[in-house]
Amino acid sequence: MSDTCTCNNTDIYLPESATLLRKEQMTELEQFYEFKLDSGKPLGHMPGQFVEVSMPGIGEAPISVSSSPTSGDTFEMVVRNVGNVTNAMHNLSEGDKVGIRGPFGTDFPVDGAMKGKDLLFICGGIGLVPVRSAIQYVFNKREDYGRVAILFGAKDPSNRLFTDELAMWAKEKDVTLLETVDHRDENWTGIEGVITKLIPLVQLDAENTVSVICGPPIMYKFVITELLAHKFDPNSIFLSLERNMKCGVGKCGHCQINNLYVCQDGPVFNFADVEDIEEAI
Description:
CATH class of the largest domain: Alpha Beta
Structural class: alpha/beta
Mean pLDDT: 92
Helix content: 10-25%
Distance between the termini: 20 Å
Largest sheet: 7 strands, mixed
Radius of gyration: 18 Å
Number of domains: 2
CATH architecture of the largest domain: 3-Layer(aba) Sandwich
């Protein structure tokens, strides 16, 4: 295992204090947060990485960073209320403090394999949260990339995230943005159905396109099958895998997949490296 922590703090086990600057309710279960480290330093992350957020007296949880490092000295995340730590975070007020360890993990290759290529982002539900960091990074360095396609699927219209940004991204030059919902409501006039329905609607050259995928585990198998059917190279497909991460530094074993630790060897993987690992997808 390689050391994939790029944290500001020299002690990977010691949280650094951060202040909540802004919070916003996004859906029934998800809240948006903007933090700043009390040291004044930038977080130092790359798109796709995560941090460990600690709530004194309660515990800590791994949370994806949702903003690009090009966006300034603050950093953003979206948190779903599903446990003790995330519930406590939902009760935070602006000005409150949390502990931050990290950033940890591998990142989307925005300065590597993605550079100079057309890009296809495929996001299901809260899978948009970490991928948003990469999308922002690409738009902030737009001349370094080719055409961009963003596919986003949600359970229903009420679960759509970053709706204002989706509208802005759709207006960008050489950008295709398509959305679908599993179940429409009376106001939804867009596409209804699984996200794989959107892939044939995108006109991209598979040989010159890098794809980034993030979403619920059940989505990956079907999306990858569709991409391979459209002649995408497994080496040009990158996945952010969700597993039961806990410590963030490969010590607890909660996120182990065979000989891989998602918190260190991931969460971003090249599909070619994990396609033969049955438990990965």
